[in-house]
Amino acid sequence: MIETEERYPADYDATDRQGAKESKENSRPKLASHIENVDEYDTVYLGFPNWYYGMPMAVYSFLEEYDFSGKTIIPFITSGGSGFSDAISEIQSIQSDATVLPEGYKVTHSKVSDVTFEDVEEWINGLNK
Ligand SMILES: Cc1cc2nc3c(=O)[nH]c(=O)nc-3n(C[C@H](O)[C@H](O)[C@H](O)COP(=O)(O)O)c2cc1C
């Protein structure tokens, strides 16, 4: 799980303001979680919410911390409706030697609670990885 040192507020609008500030400043929030044994993985499932038409800045912190060359990155996203926006191309430009699946799983926030285990299983089984 990607965890930041500074936690985001429980209040949505306050988090929105913080996310807007981080995005504007192109900041790299410090992460509280780190992967010790990244070499043992061939596939990285990378899930995040769409923040300001792309990835939250903490996901940039995460992607810039590791070298996923030769690995497959499978993105999935929740959003208010924007879907992946620029996220897939941003991931590919940071991890240029990784294979980034172009169509990860996406769900809008109002539908998150409708997603079943079977939906996710179907998605994973249908992936061309
Ligand atoms: C800082 C911030 C920026 C956001 N920017 C977008 C956006 O550009 N496009 C979009 O579709 N949703 C945007 N959202 C909505 C989130 O994607 C949505 O809240 C998230 O997917 C999780 O859903 P939930 O709030 O129902 O848990 C934003 C939310 C926050 C907090």
Kindly describe this structure:
- By secondary structure, the protein is an alpha/beta fold.
- The protein has a single domain, classed as Rossmann fold.
- It is built from four helices and four strands; from the N terminus they run H-E-H-E-H-E-E-H.
- It has helices at residues 12-24, 57-65, 87-94, 117-125; strands spanning 43-49, 72-79, 99-100, 105-108.
- Strands 1, 2, 3 and 4 form a four-stranded parallel sheet that branches.
- The chain is globular and about 40 Å long.
- The two termini are 22 Å apart.
- Residues 15-16, 19-20, 49-53, 78-82, 109 line the site of flavin mononucleotide (FMN).
- Flavin mononucleotide binds next to helix 1 and strand 2.
Quick overview of this protein structure:
This protein is α/β, with parallel strands linked by helices. The protein contains 4 helices and 4 strands.
User: How many β-strand stretches?
Assistant: 4
The CATH topology is: Rossmann fold
Task: Give every kind of bound small molecule, once each.
Answer: flavin mononucleotide
The named CATH superfamily: Flavodoxin domain
Instruction: Output mean pLDDT.
Output: 94
Tell me the number of helical segments per DSSP (H or I, 4 or more residues long).
4
Percent range of helical residues: 25-40%
- CATH architectural name: 3-Layer(aba) Sandwich
The shape is globular
Question: What is the C-level CATH assignment?
Answer: Alpha Beta
Number of domains: 1
Strand content: 15-25%
**Biggest sheet details:** 4 strands, parallel
Contiguous uncertain segments of 5+ residues: none
Order of helices and strands: HEHEHEEH
Classify the secondary structure makeup into a structural class.
alpha/beta
Radius of gyration: 15 Å
Alpha-carbon distance between the two ends: 22 Å
